[in-house]
Amino acid sequence: MNFKRRLIESILRSYPVEWRREYGAELADLLATHTLGIRVVADVLWSGVQQRMRSREPATLLGCVAMFASFALLLANVVAPQPYGGWTTVLEPSSMTFPTVRVSAGVGEVFSVLFVCCGYWTCRHRGGTQSQAGRAAATVCLLAGIPVMVVGALMLLGVIGLSVVGPGGSAFALNGVSFTYYSANGHSPSPLSVILFPLSRVPIAWLWGLLGGHVARWTPSVETARQAKIRR
Amino acid sequence: MGRKPKTGPASDPELLILLSLADAPKHGSAIMNDVLTVCDVRLGPGTLYTAITRLVERKLIAPETISGRERPYRITVQGSKTLAAQLSDMRRVASIGLARLRTA
Do A104 and A180 reside in the same domain of the chain? Predict the structure, then answer.
């Protein structure tokens, strides 16, 4: 398989499985006859997102909700920073994780529950396998991390400045567009560590998704429970 | 993301696909080339298949039952009626607009 075929297959993964089964081969053949420029790739990727939104897959729906939530938190941090320890403390330093910065919501229990629910939903209501449950949770994690990675990339490019604020310090940016980073010891995160954190969470999200898939397998379905009740 | 060099109702991907299939069934690549030649609109592959999916779901076009990967699509009776209605609307709006421009 040559590079172009592999690239086409990767791009087509942005579409839902059912859609790929119906139209995937045709679109792959069509793309094989085209030059894969940025505009063509962007067009196909965007159409894939649209199809996923229309197919209402658990991973897409939960992922979009999580992405919107993290985007809203990051935006609130930039436009309306809170005092040290406020709810807009999105990114925080950590000596326990690699990279040494973490997204506070990304390590919270609520986020883990979201992955378990995604795995459960994928297995129970969509008839997915265990591995699909894990992949669905990993997709949610990646989608939720996109705004964070974008912020990291913008920091890297110098578009977003960084104001490191310690306890008692002023949270308001002094000039330009600035992200407020709360750190007791004045630790400043590198943009690369901000980009890497969401990716580092993907394997853990996958495991939570697997757990959700297992829970779905253990719990009897509504239909089975109803039949057992009838038998009694 | 529609790559449309023109804007307006005449560059709507669904309308262009129906227009392209009005004379004969065509597969995806042939539809793209036809739309480019006839209407001077370059449809992106993703845009094309998003529109095809919607048209199939609305039963305005249907895939031909043939084996092989390049499946042609044909316009249905309902699709022909929809296309005719849309073109009539466009003709009516165009004639009113042109008449007003002439009298202005």
Answer: yes
Q: Do B45 and A27 touch (CB under 8 A)?
A: yes
Total domains in the fold of chain A: 2
- Chain A CB within 8 Å of residue B45 CB: yes
Q: How many CB pairs under 8 A join A and B?
A: 56
The pTM score is 0.57
**Higher per-residue pLDDT: A179 or B2:** A179
> How far is the C-alpha of A47 from the C-alpha of A45, rounded, in Å?
5
Nearest to B53 among A25, A43, A51 (CB): A51
Count of beta carbons in the 10 Å neighbourhood of residue A115: 29
A31 shares its domain with A133:
no
Task: List chain A pLDDT tens, one digit each, 232 residues.
Answer: 588 888 899 899 889 888 999 999 999 999 998 888 888 999 999 899 888 877 777 887 888 888 888 888 888 888 877 777 677 778 888 877 778 888 877 777 888 899 999 999 888 876 778 888 999 999 999 989 989 999 899 888 888 888 888 777 666 655 567 888 888 877 888 889 999 989 998 999 999 999 999 998 887 665 555 556 556 6
Min Cα distance A47 → chain B (Å) is: 5
Q: Domain range for residue A145?
A: 56-231
DSSP for residue A87: T
Residues of chain A in contact with residue B50, where contact means CB-CB under 8 angstroms, are 47, 50-51
The reply to whether A2 and A89 lie within a common domain is no
Same domain, A63 and A47: no
Tell whether A195 and A93 lie within a shared domain. Answer: yes
- Asked if residue A168 and residue A92 are part of one domain, the reply reads yes
**Pick from A27, A33, A34: CB nearest B49:** A27
ipTM of the complex: 0.83
B3, B48, B70 member nearest A39 (Cβ)? B3
Residues of chain A positioned with their CB less than 8 A from the CB of B30: none
Strands (E) across B1-104 are located at 61-63, 73-75
Q: Give contacts of A31 with chain B, Cβ < 8 Å.
A: 45
A127 and A28 assigned to the same domain? no
CB A211 within 8 A of CB A114: no
Asked if A106 and A146 sit in the same domain, the reply is yes
For residues A89-106, b (16+ Cβ closer than 10 Å) or e, as one string? bbbbbbeeeebebbbbbb
